[in-house]
User: Which sequence fits this backbone?
């Protein structure tokens, strides 16, 4: 799935290289239940659905909700989309995988929700551009006994003049619940 294949608008999107690492790290497989909190354009949700996961995507922004639907249709995948601010809008269901792509100032509450709704042995992951959010998730993983990892990925792309242009670096965190 190339970035150019997604309809984007003005909504943040997990870039291709980071999406590949995130999806691979979450060890996705058909029939796993997958929750994407702060789904943005839905690029992670679409990737999970294309691998056969049962996907629920939660997003608060109207433009993003529209893009999630359009991208799901463009890639021919189905998913449930929830409108609202997490964690208040989220269902009382358990999931095999939970991804946090956005938190709208509710990271601690979202982490608590995710922990309470992640099945034993399940994987929770988050991508952040700020060190403070990455540190908060790392501290959370440590305090709850997760087997966790943190990576920092920085990607540069060549422009039309042959110059490399850096994208924002991204912290990728992954934790497996015991």
Assistant:
């Amino acid at each position: 799935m190339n970035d150019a294949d997604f309809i984007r608008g003005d909504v943040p999107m997990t870039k291709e290289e980071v999406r590949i690492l995130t999806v691979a790290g979450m060890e996705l497989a058909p029939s796993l239940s997958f929750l994407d909190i702060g789904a943005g354009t839905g690029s992670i949700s679409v990737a999970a659905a294309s691998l056969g996961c049962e996907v629920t995507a939660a997003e608060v922004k109207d433009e993003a909700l529209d893009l999630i639907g359009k991208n799901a249709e463009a890639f021919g995948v189905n998913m449930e989309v929830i409108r609202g601010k997490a964690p208040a809008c989220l269902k009382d269901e358990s999931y095999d995988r939970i991804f946090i792509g956005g938190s709208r100032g509710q990271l601690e509450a979202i982490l608590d929700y995710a922990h309470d709704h992640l099945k034993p042995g399940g994987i929770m992951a988050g991508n952040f551009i700020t060190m403070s959010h990455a540190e908060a998730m790392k501290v959370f993983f440590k305090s709850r006994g997760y087997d966790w990892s943190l990576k920092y990925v920085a990607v540069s792309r060549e422009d039309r003049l042959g110059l490399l242009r850096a994208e924002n670096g991204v912290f990728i965190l992954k934790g497996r619940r015991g």
